[in-house]
Amino acid sequence: MNTKATPFSGFDLSSFWDDSDYARKEYVEPPPTPAAIAAVEAALGYRLPASYIALMQSQNGGIPFRRCFPTDKATSWADDHVAISAFKGIGFAQQWSLCGGLGSRFKIEAWDYPDIGVYFGDCPSAGHDMIALDYRACGPTGEPAVVHVDQEGGYRITPLAPDFETFVRSLVHESEYEDDPEDVKNDALAHVRSAPFNSRLQKLCDQWPDPELPAAIRRLAEAIVQDKGFFALHADANSHRMYATQFLLLSHSRPVRSMEGFLQSYPGVIAMVGSAHFGTGGWAPGFVEDWFQARVDAADLVQQEGQWHLGTDFRAALLQELGAAT
């Protein structure tokens, strides 16, 4: 791609973004000003490509319509492509922005991703792989390549595109890689019925007095798959039951003193676990935050002596729905 040409010449950026309340809440920043761009570049230590700035001037962060990039090498995501769930905006305000609380430096400093440049692309695995601007060959002021970094594969780096604009132009719709929905559903059912619990979930279940709770969790997961065709948690009633069940286990094991504490403890129970174990493979914090706040507003979550607990009636109703002993 000729970096001296006007970025995205002839490319329809107006149809690039998939607008939604979730995207606006979690990703979209105000249009980037020269001062904001300079501040972000200074914080990251890299000059952003002109094409990245041009894309963010069309919308500063968000979720694209076309989310798949074809590859000729297999990754933890698929044999023939990688997926991007969102682009990080140029800013500091949104937690998912380049310099937000869960931005590029967070991935390097907290998640041990290699310090090769700027992590701009979130993936559906919710942290188990990322897409990055790779400045190793060009230096911090050059034109970076785009790579996929696979935590599941020991942070294996797979080249994707020679520059950011080529990467964006090469994205295709996920429908090009869709499997037969019935096959996806059957695979998901087999997974929730028989995949082993990871050590953390198993320990939490072992600490619970009713040995039938693991079976109840699997039944709930099976109901979710029957409804959706896959295993993922969103804002539906069964997802809310699974959030409550995880809160039940976590609060039984140790005090939950804040929503932030719950969100920190949440990954690793059934989200963000290896694909060989029982789990959703990813999570969206906004859904969990909304569940927590809704339960507080309804007095289903109550605070006593600085700790959050499920209210007595809500807890009893949950255990009855699960078919588990109190």
TrEMBL record:
Superkingdom: Bacteria
Domain named Knr4/Smi1-like: residues: 31-170
InterPro entries xref list: Knr4/Smi1-like_dom, Knr4/Smi1-like_sf
Signal peptide: none
Protein name: Knr4/Smi1-like domain-containing protein
Organism in which the protein naturally occurs: Acidovorax soli
